[in-house]
């Protein structure tokens, strides 16, 4: 089914990223997006992957080794809000899947304040034509606040420099995920 927030995000990223690009997985989780991104960037590209949980990074490391992608990825045990400490090159894309680690401790969740900082830093690092995708799962503690904060933020971005969309299932119950996408149209001052 194409009408899933994650599949739509991957479709958008697939149309944007080319071999040799530098990209960021802002929420490594179990590593599915990290592997997806590593495949897209190829041997000459690089993926920076962030997660605060060592178990998430260990799971991702195993998946990357299984695919032979371990040399294309730098896994970093730190919050995504600190990405600018580690990433010193322009990037083509950033993926976020907000919420908690599937199969992990559900009390450890993404937080509105750190996520907003991460998104702000992401758009500063993006090259023109670059993309940020955010899949926000809202059913966890603080999830609705995180979603609302991010929607308000992307709605405030200068349309001369950014194109922003959100896609949300309107006939599903139990807080279905929402997809938010930010495309950087040009470089320059835009805050």
Q: Superfamily at the CATH H level? A: Vaccinia Virus protein VP39
- Work out the number of β strands: 7
User: The biggest beta sheet, please?
Assistant: 7 strands, mixed
Class from helix and strand fractions = alpha/beta
Q: What is the CATH-assigned architecture?
A: 3-Layer(aba) Sandwich
Count of separate structural domains: 1
Q: Give unreliable regions as ranges.
A: none
Explain this structure to me?
This protein is of the alpha/beta class and 191 residues long. It has one domain: 3-Layer(aba) Sandwich (Rossmann fold), CATH 3.40.50. 36% of the residues lie in helices and 25% in strands. It is built from 6 helices and 7 strands; from the N terminus they run H-E-H-E-H-E-H-E-H-E-H-E-E. A 7-stranded mixed beta sheet has the order 3-2-1-4-5-7-6, sandwiched between helices. Strand 1 (22-25), helix 2 (32-41) and strand 2 (46-51) form a beta-alpha-beta unit. The longest helix is centred in the N-terminal third of the chain and has 14 residues, at 54-67. The chain starts with a helix and ends in a 7-residue tail after the last strand.
In short:
With 191 residues, this protein is of the alpha/beta class.
Helix and strand layout, with pairings?
Blueprint: H1 5-16, E1 22-25, H2 32-41, E2 46-51, H3 54-67, E3 73-77, H4 83-86, E4 91-98, H5 112-125, E5 126-136, H6 143-156, E6 162-168, E7 178-184
Parallel strand pairs: 1-2, 1-4, 2-3, 4-5
Antiparallel strand pairs: 5-7, 6-7
Helix pairs in contact: 2-3, 5-6
């Amino acid at each position: 089914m194409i009408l899933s927030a994650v599949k739509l995000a991957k479709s958008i990223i697939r149309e944007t990223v080319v071999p040799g690009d530098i990209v960021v997985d802002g929420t490594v989780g179990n590593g599915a997006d990290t592997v997806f991104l590593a495949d897209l960037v190829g041997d000459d590209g690089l993926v920076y992957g962030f997660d605060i949980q060592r178990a998430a990074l260990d799971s991702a490391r195993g998946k990357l080794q299984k695919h032979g992608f371990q040399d294309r990825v730098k896994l970093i045990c730190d919050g995504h809000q600190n990405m600018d400490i580690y990433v010193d090159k322009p990037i083509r894309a950033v993926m976020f899947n907000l919420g908690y680690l599937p199969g992990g401790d559900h009390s450890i969740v993404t937080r509105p304040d750190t996520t907003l900082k991460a998104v702000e830093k992401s758009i500063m690092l993006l090259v023109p034509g670059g993309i940020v995708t955010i899949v926000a799962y809202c059913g966890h503690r603080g999830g609705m606040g995180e979603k609302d904060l991010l929607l308000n933020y992307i709605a405030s971005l200068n349309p001369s420099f950014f194109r922003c969309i959100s896609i949300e299932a309107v006939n599903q119950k139990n807080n279905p995920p929402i997809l938010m996408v930010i495309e950087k149209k040009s470089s320059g001052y835009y805050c």
